[in-house]
Specification:
- By secondary structure, the protein is of the alpha+beta class.
- Among the domains are: 72 residues, no CATH class; 164 residues, Periplasmic binding protein-like II (D-Maltodextrin-Binding Protein, domain 2); 97 residues, no CATH class.
- It is 45% helix and 13% strand.
- The strands form 5 sheets. Strands 1, 2, 3, 6, 13, 14, 15 and 16 form an 8-stranded mixed beta sheet that branches. Strands 4-5 form a two-stranded antiparallel sheet.
- Helix 20 packs antiparallel against helix 21.
- The longest helix is centred in the first third of the chain and has 22 residues.
- The two termini are 58 Å apart.
């Protein structure tokens, strides 16, 4: 092959030299012509070929060499076929969620190499698409019938844009004998939708009640419990750790500029310097789920039949949240207050302005300012609802199998690898907690290095939280999902930033608007 290329170059060089000799351009000075070129010119003068003849001869030679090269050099398709042999090719599409950063790409490539070296039946191919264009790219591939086999990591939000495109992997789980006992059963159920078993647990972010012990000490209050089922000591009595208790404790921890808490006479609700509770970076659906329970919030099965069905428990949750911001005894920072620089521009707990903050494991990414200010925090369990049931919230990413895959068994074999052996390398670069409880130690070792003051009991709260996912997810599928979720967020923004809202009227309008959005064609 290399020899053929040299021959081709030689022919082209010779042709160019002859054309120089025969051309009509200015004649160069004799001293400027190398001896080799003089020889070519002399030979050319002797045979006196025309320029056209030289070109034709050179082109013929080039064509002959090209044919030889083509015979020696395999096509791109042949290279792929030779590399794969009898292997089944499985495409892994990354970009709909995390995974596109250079350091993540490098590890993902390493995992692909590991998988391909681990067996000889499947050839895994990585396909990275920038996040901004991933949704359109995937939609185009699916529409053309050439969708990838595996998509992920991706959360509920990213998956909902392709509702109806996910394979029910229950048959593959059964036929492969995959051991589901490594997961909490509630997490497996978490991925059961109208489409079937659309995924398995992988990267999880369970919720917890973050709290600042120093603030509790100053108020003479007990810390939130750290084991599900434990009660809380308040005013000398043992009570359930539910939202009623949280509300009472949060009011006692909300302080004005004069040092008065929200329950004391003379409390100035316009001069709050510390709040007792923050629903830290939670979508209105999350706030409603925590307080009122997971629920499917629409009815119907096709455009024209859809109807918004937000339950009364969610309405009560949002009314509680609104009263917590604008009631007579507020205990939650309103939108204007939380957006103030001294309240962290929205990162209220990290600014040291909230005694408690209910949020997910991913929030450990964003507490550096609190730590650097010398303020320690710990984690307690999520509160129970009025009926005593704990309704947790888990943000989660996993891998999905496209239902149009030609090789569902091979795709599931890859998925199984990615969430188990491959996960050992992938989860750290995704910054996620493993869904397999036995694999969480490495995750918490990293977190402990970031926050050495956090106790093992606090980290264990997250492990316990794996048993309390929200099924269906607060990020559940809704018809016309993007517009629907945006409309609920608009409702939340109104409550967050506006005093004296006609709550009932706005809630009714939300239901009406969602019904209209759901039924858009």
């Amino acid at each position: 092959m290399r020899k053929s290329i040299f021959v081709l170059l030689a022919i082209l060089l010779a042709a160019s030299m002859v054309l120089v000799a025969c051309g009509g351009g200015a004649e160069p000075a004799a001293t400027a012509v190398p001896a080799a070129e003089e020889a070519v010119q002399e030979e050319a003068a002797a045979v006196e070929p025309t320029a056209e003849a030289v070109v034709e001869e050179a082109e013929a030679a080039v064509e002959e060499v090209a044919e030889e090269v083509a015979a020696e050099e395999p096509t791109a398709e042949a290279v792929v076929e030779e590399a794969m042999g009898d292997k089944t090719q499985i495409r892994w599409f990354v970009g709909l969620g995390t995974g596109t950063n250079p350091e993540q790409v490098a590890i993902q490539e390493e995992v692909v190499a590991d998988f391909n070296a681990s067996q000889d039946q499947i050839e895994l191919v990585l396909e990275i698409v920038p996040y901004d264009s991933a949704r359109d790219t995937l939609a185009t591939q699916i529409a053309s019938g050439s969708g990838p086999d595996i998509i992920g990591p991706v959360g509920w939000g990213g998956s909902n844009a392709f509702y109806g495109q996910w394979l029910d992997i229950a048959p593959q789980i059964e036929s492969s004998g995959f051991d589901l006992s490594v997961f909490d059963p509630a997490l497996v159920e978490f991925y059961q939708t109208e489409e079937g078993q659309v995924g398995l647990p992988f990267a999880v972010f369970p919720g917890a009640m973050y709290f600042i012990p120093e603030m509790f000490d100053e108020a003479g209050l007990a810390y939130p419990p750290q084991n599900y089922g434990d009660q809380y000591e308040l005013n000398g009595e043992m009570v359930d750790w539910n939202w009623e208790t949280v509300t009472e404790v949060a009011k006692l921890l909300t302080v004005d500029v004069n040092g008065l808490n929200a329950t004391e006479d003379g409390f100035d609700r316009t001069q709050i310097v510390q709040v007792g509770y923050s629903p830290q970076w939670q979508h209105p659906n999350s706030t409603a789920t925590f307080y009122g329970g997971a629920a499917k919030i629409f009815e119907g099965d096709a455009p024209g039949s859809y109807e918004s069905a937000i339950p009364d428990s969610w309405k009560e949750a949002w009314a509680w949240w609104y009263d917590g911001m604008y009631g007579e005894q507020p205990f939650i920072a309103s939108g204007p207050l939380s957006g103030a620089p001294e309240f962290g521009n929205g990162n209220v707990f990290n600014a040291g302005k909230a005694a408690m903050g209910l949020t997910q494991t991913w929030y450990t990414c964003c507490l550096g300012e609190l730590r650097d200010a010398g303020v320690e925090f710990q984690m307690g369990i999520q509160p129970a609802m009025a009926d005593g049931t704990v309704q947790g919230r888990i943000d989660a990413d996993t891998f999905r199998v496209w239902k149009g895959t030609a090789n569902p068994e091979a795709a599931f074999a890859v998925l199984s690898y990615l969430i188990t052996d491959g996960g050992d390398k992938l989860l750290p670069i995704y910054g996620a907690m493993p869904a397999i409880a036995e694999k969480t130690d490495a995750f918490f070792e990293v977190k402990s290095a970031d926050y050495p003051f956090v106790t093992p009991e606090s980290w264990d709260v997250f492990v316990q939280g794996l048993a309390y996912p929200d099924t269906p997810s607060a990020e559940q599928y809704l018809p016309n999902w993007t517009e629907s979720f945006a409309r609920i967020q608009t409702f939340g923004d109104l409550l967050n930033n506006t005093e004296d809202v006609d709550f009932d009227a706005e809630f009714d309008k939300l239901q009406e608007d969602l019904t209209a959005i759901y039924n858009k064609q």
